[in-house]
Write a structure and sequence with these properties.
By secondary structure, the chain is mainly α. The chain has one domain. Helix content is about 85%, strand content about 0%. The protein contains three helices and no strands. Helix 2 crosses helix 3.
């Protein structure tokens, strides 16, 4: 049974309308209801993608904080070239290990 078969069966059960506008309104309602699962799926996917992007950003911030703390523990001072290079080297090392 195809996905459109239940929709066709439903349309056949609709009463005959003498008013063309009312018939079109009824068909529009059926069309909207038929697309609801697709719309929900697309919305769900967008929400998941948004959450993944948010988590990726949070992970990057946490990783940067960790790298900065490690460089500071090595005795390097923030806002110096050596500190910046230390952070970059740590980020590069993490990127190569994944």
């Amino acid at each position: 049974m195809t996905a459109e078969r239940p929709l066709r069966d439903f349309l056949k059960r609709l009463p005959d309308f003498e008013d063309f506008e009312k018939e079109q309104e009824a068909l529009d309602v059926v069309a909207r209801e038929a697309e609801t699962p697709l719309a929900a799926t697309l919305l769900y996917r967008r929400m998941i993608d948004s959450l993944r992007q948010s988590l990726a950003g949070a992970n990057e911030v946490a990783s940067l904080r960790k790298d900065r703390a490690a460089c500071a523990q090595e005795g390097l001072r923030p806002r110096t070239a050596d500190f910046g290079l230390c952070v970059i080297d740590r980020e590069d090392a993490v990127g190569k290990s994944h």
